[in-house]
Amino acid sequence: MAGGLFAADREYFFHLGGYDSGMEIWGGENLELSFRTWMCGGSLEFVPCSHVGHIFRAGHPYNMTTKDVHGYNSARLAEVWLDDYKRLYYHFRGDWK
């Protein structure tokens, strides 16, 4: 599920807890929501005939730091959801040990 290209029932989205407040700016929220939906008994549906768009802003409404926010967020995903399998994340993403 692409983070910028998904639709969800608002009530269900907030029932799941909305976005993880421990994540920063962007990156990884799509995987985190996918794991949470699946682990909490929900399902994802891919609709091949659907059409979506993504409108990029001229600038960012947040400060783009030099920090690897995607790396930070994916490490958080591993710590929260992957349990025994997080070792595989750290094996393949060696810079986040």
Automatic annotation (TrEMBL):
Pfam family, one: Glyco_transf_7C
Domain Galactosyltransferase C-terminal as annotated: residue spans: 2-60
Gene Ontology cellular component annotations, sorted alphabetically: Golgi apparatus
Top-level lineage group: Eukaryota
Record's keyword terms, sorted: Disulfide bond, Transferase
Biological-process GO terms, alphabetical: protein O-linked glycosylation
MF term (GO), any: polypeptide N-acetylgalactosaminyltransferase activity
UniProt-listed InterPro entries: Galactosyl_T_C (IPR027791), Nucleotide-diphossugar_trans (IPR029044)
The protein's name: Galactosyltransferase C-terminal domain-containing protein
